[in-house]
Amino acid sequence: MIKFNRFIRNLHLWLGLSCGLIASISGLTGSLYTWQPELSAMLNPELLTIEPAKPFDENNLYKTSYKLVEQHKDSLTKINLPYREQKTISLEYTNGETYYYHPISGSLLGKKSSSIKFFENLLNFHRTLGIPKIGKYITGSSTLLFFLLLLSSGAYMWWKIYSTNLIKGFKIKWTAKKKKLNYDIHKVLGASFFFPLMVIAFTGAYFTYNTYYKTALSIFDDSAQPKSVQNELKIGSPISHKEYLLNPDKDYDLRTVILPKNKQEGYHFRYIQDRFLMEGLRKTKELKIDQKGSITSLTDFQTDSNSNRIAGQFYPVHIGEIGGLWGRILVFISGLIPIILYITGLKMFVLKRKK
Question: What's the whole-model pTM score?
């Protein structure tokens, strides 16, 4: 048992010095990105908000979107309708530029700003550390190790010491010497945020290893459950992309249309139940049609498999939106904890080596 405990301590130490550093970077960038909608809207009111700030008519929004697609479709790759903090329409062009348009009048509002690009780059750095190709695997693997071994080994050591006196395990002696103070902060924050950090790490790794996650989640699928309503929608005459752009869906809000790059590709429509930030389950629908209007692919939360429904909640859980404002605040604070654990753990390691 003594050898096992020593192994756990060494495992926790060396994983903390390696994976803990990457977790700290991911936590800091993730915490900042939690407030991206509010910060982006505040910094770019002329691009992302409209006056007066009131709900707009969906029919007029769809008509404006269709007109913009028809005017620019030869040079477009994507059109984004109002979604989250963005109350306007944005067009992404083949040359990489993005411009914003009024959702009712269709008038040009301006070009993508540096602050919007900053948050896009921040999200990319959060997911990949800015390293092409292999960056997401470094982050994803470190997150899994953080989830499976680093947090669990810390919890094991905490329990071995404080299982008979739990209150003591949550106390910090602020007047103690540096080594003891660092230890107290480390143990209390680690124990207090154990479950939030486990959830954030587990859901975060999904974005790297989603295929494996979905395979594991398939155990929740019902073999008799319909996988799609694709066959139902294929009955009758094909519906052109114009019909989807002009007629609002009865259950979902259209948020993005990806246009075909060539004559062989079709249109890709992405829907969400509510355009703007909301708590609760994330319900989406994705539809693909070919150039003739025939449906080639369809996923819909209402008829999807249980595994896909569960997988669809990893994003709102990871960023806290499933719990509304308080959920986002918890994720924001939790994201700052790994860097504090890393610093206090590093200080304990250095002080011990000096001694």
Answer: 0.88
